[in-house]
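Weekly modeling sync, notes
Attendees: S.R. (lead), two postdocs, one rotation student

Agenda item 3: backlog of single-chain predictions. S.R. asked that every request posted to the team notebook include the full sequence so nobody has to chase files. The rotation student volunteered to paste the first one in as an example of the format we agreed on. Action items at the bottom.

Example entry:
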Amino acid sequence: MRMLSWKTAVVAFSWYFILGATILQGDGTLFAKLVGAAYPFDADKLGSREDAALAGTVEALIALVEARDHYTGEHTSRVSALTTRLALALGLDASEAYMLGLAGRLHDVGKVAVPDAVLQKPARLTEEEQALMRRHTVVGGDVVSRVPSLRAIAPLIRAHHEQWNGRGYPDGLTGEQIPLGARIVAVANAYEAMITDQPYQQARDEASTLAELRRSAGTQFDPMIVEVFERVLCMERARAPRAEV
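Predicted structure, as returned to the notebook:
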């Protein structure tokens, strides 16, 4: 598959966004018909035209990535759900948790700029390939910053691979210099990646995944967020219906 330039993707998406905003000046029906077949989006269930435009915008961006790598789309959907639940557990209000869920959904959108040979490589990446992959944080933040309704989460997308000890990328931020939302996405992203089969590694079970998160708390991850995340998973397990014997 021919690699899509991230600048081309931004231009194409900008036209999508302008078209969608223009159509939404009407009753939104045409917009829903245009995007409904391609994106899992139901305008009737959203509270306003602005909500409908935002939902369509997010799914349009995700579609750009899924067109090149289906795994990334599924991964970001699961990260979004984890991020939202973790944000609520940390005491953020519903609107803040919703926006962080969008950051989780869009955190890998910059991978549209990563060459297919790197993005879909069924083995560990070389140092040069890792450098190409790491650009997805910068590209993703830049793409999302161009959408006014999503601009607030652009720094979270840029910073979701920063580390608590300052050894992350792209800016080497440390501790609370890293936006809270990015620290939340980082934990959800790492957990979901570890419990899922990858081309270069088998999925871990939940116990060993949580042990790895605890081991990396205070170095890679915000220790407070790791602690709350583990508590959330424990509570969800306790609430889950048990199979009848």
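Discussion: group reviewed the output briefly. The chain has a mean pLDDT of 81.
Action items: rotation student to repeat for the remaining queue; S.R. to check formatting next week.
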